[in-house]
Amino acid sequence: MIGRIYKGTGGLYTVKTEKGYLELKARKNILKKGAELRAGDYVELSDSVIEELIPRKNTLIRPPVSNIDKLLIVIALRNPDPCFYNIDKMIAVAEYHGIEPVLILNKNDYEDTSGVSQVYGELPYRSYFISASERIGTDAVINEINGCTCVLSGVSGVGKSTLLNAIAPELLRETGDVSERLRRGKHTTRCAELFDVCGGTIADTPGFSSLELEAFDLKDRSKLAECFSEFREFFSECRFHDCAHVKDLGCAVREAVEEGKIKKSRYESYIQMYEELGEYKKWEDK
Ligand SMILES: Nc1nc2c(ncn2[C@@H]2O[C@H](COP(=O)(O)OP(=O)(O)O)[C@@H](O)[C@H]2O)c(=O)[nH]1
Ligand SMILES: [Mg+2]
Ligand SMILES: [Zn+2]
Known about the structure:
By secondary structure, this protein is an alpha/beta fold.
């Protein structure tokens, strides 16, 4: 029988199967030392134990979730003001793992004073302008979740819980800054859990407000540019086939930035991430 892990703590896993939810332990040594089964993993089971991990389509370490179709990135037009670099990092992490990024621009009732709409409304990703608290545009999010496994991400205060309450009231999330702070103080567990909502599955990942660069698992930073979708069409025009698109002569990506074909902020994020990954690698080598 095949099942999917919906939750796992302390070596006991909640597995969704054709017979309903089962609480199971995993057979020893089904994973390499130190590795753990994660929410979202598909597994093969016998009567009373998880026998085998079915190869993952993708997996994240932080938050620990596998087989993700979409990363729903929630961005507030204001309050909190958007951090472009952080958003670009989330998009790149998704791209790197073969997860489709979907941009949800929330708090559309505010005026956009940062220019975030122009940047993220015009990338080659689907984007939606919504107001979670007013429940405007939230049907589009329901449609995105339908038939997919999704992870919701975005920094604290952007409206993730408000959005979840609007589209899946059965989950009943606490909202607001105070509850967020309280929650973080109380619970130190950082475990992910899947929920079936809106015809799909969503991962709730308390303690993970945004993806971390370490979770990138990207040792070879030459792959980073690939994670910036709108850069790709220019690669073949760079003078050198191994162009890093940093200071290289005849770089078509840099030219596209100069000509306004690529947003400056996106390119700046690329450079910053490229440098950060270099530092990460140095640190790794020690
Ligand atoms: N003005 C406005 N406020 C919103 C909107 N959506 C959520 N909020 C407010 O933003 C605050 C943070 O929301 P919350 O859902 O807790 O954010 P989370 O930290 O991402 O889960 C709350 O006070 C919400 O009422 C919206 O569309 N417009
Ligand atoms: Mg919340
Ligand atoms: Zn180049």
